[in-house]
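Researcher: Quick one. two chains, 622 residues in total.
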Amino acid sequence: MDMYERKIGDVILALDNISLSFGAMKVLDDVSFDVRQGEIRSIIGPNGAGKSSMLNVINGFYHPQQGSITFRGEKRKEMDVHKAAASGIARTFQNIALFKGMSTLDNIMTGRNLKMKCNIFQQAWYWGKAQKEEIEHRQKVEEIIDFLEIQNIRKTPVGRLPYGFQKRVELGRALAAEPEILLLDEPMAGMNVEEKEDMSRFILDINDEFGTTIILIEHDMGVVMDLSDRVVVLDYGRQLADGSPDEVRSNQTVIDAYLGVSH
Amino acid sequence: MIYREAGVYKSTYRADHAIFTIPQDRWSMIGIFAIAFLLIPAVGSEYWLGAIMLPFLILALAALGLNILTGYCGQLSLGTGGFMATGAFSAYKLATAFPDVHILFVILGAGLIAAAVGILFGIPSLRIKGFYLAVATLASQFFLIWMFITFGWFTNYSASGVISAPPMTIIGDIFVTGPQATLVAKYLFTLSIVVVMALVAKNLVRSNIGREWMAVRDMDIAAEIIGIPMLSTKLKAFAVSSFFCGVAGALWAFLYTGSVSPLAFGVDRSFQVLFMIIIGGLGSVMGAFLGAAFIVLLPILLNNLPTMLGLNIKTDMISHMEYMIFGALIVFFLIVEPHGLARLWSLLKEKLRLWPFPH
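Model:
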């Protein structure tokens, strides 16, 4: 990390006093943290802590009952799924949510849907504007394919790919949107050590080369502590700690939450 | 070894985005066009052109329309017959209200009206999916047919409730509808429209809109999160699909049968077209053609096979057998190969790449 200058800027996304409940179930209880431009921010916590719900709040899939979200200086009560995508928030899913019937290439091309402007009549005619647009975006998508080293599976339907590759394609689809903030929900779940190393390398490279801000949920503590600039810890929807990896690691309530304490 | 993409080098993305990237495919397509446009009109008998090729082409067009909605966008519809009827009756109203308008514009207008009706009946698709949507589209099927039967305005108050196509020309005095029209003219006119529309369908499904449809089909939540608007994407599928079905309906009424009652577009027609895409291949342009060929040709084959084999089977038995074989084949395809004949075709191509070597 000290080898080069990290460019960490101002707060780009701030979550203030977010509370979310489903009926009597309180999923998030008064959670507040912020994300700075260009950093890798992790959310950790035991199963059911509300980590994925937090990502769903950020990209507008869940609407919190209380609290506010400030994204790029604009404060709002909740995000809207479409607007979040259009304003540069992309994500991957814990359980891979690829378009199974389509090829790797088409999946990643779909990630650029918001940038494609030709109308349905131009696409029906195809030749001319639509073809030009298609080829321009194909070039961009090929850069992502090169970056993720998945050239040989470009034309393979993603349903046939092994798990590790599917995770990679999903990351590619999110990258295709050229997001400002990338939400990664357990990108390394179920992977072996080599695959985890590859994925970690991709995450660091994305952050470094494209300057993308990353919000990461991950259970592998080694990975989290190595990659993150700052870590927020949730447990049963409450915020236990927020700080640098070292601070979090030495925090007694965090240790108790993970290891359990005798009362 | 026979069919291979080895040695086909594409150095531009333009070449890689072509419809047929392999020379064999391009040549066989040119061959098919030559047969369809030159050989069949030259040697085809009245029976072949009028009773086989015309219904095959028109039903393939309807199947293409349904395949866009169901195969690509994943919205199950049983309203195909209703949308075809909308096209047929719109064409009739347009042709009788504006007798000087060219038949191409009549057909285009009929398609656009069907598209508008499709959008209207597609609105519930935002809230309901799968079987529930199928039932909603079934309701639209019954409603539309009831409407065309009940209100005399649609048939210009004809006593029998049947509409007859007025004689119309494509150019000069070449009639494509009415008693003066020759079957060759009708066939070539229908074929040209079907070829153009198949190309449009292929262009749509290989462009952004096609990927958006497939994304909605495969994983709607993920599609929404990457920014695909649910309602407008689904409604576009309904509009395009109904446009295709509407044009098919107009061609059916004007060119194939010449006169038609709403009952020709009953729920049986909807199921017939649905079976075509199930057997032909969901989510495949070629599948629509293979399925239509299969469903149009199989009854003819079944009718003639016993006599060819010298077996003495009663005609009513043959028509019962037709239903049984259809039913069995649909169950077979749903279980064994949900992607239908089009998938079998691509499997065959994969095998031919290696043949005669095992691997």
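Residues 123 and 310 of chain B are 54 Å apart (CA to CA).
Researcher: Thanks, that's what I needed.
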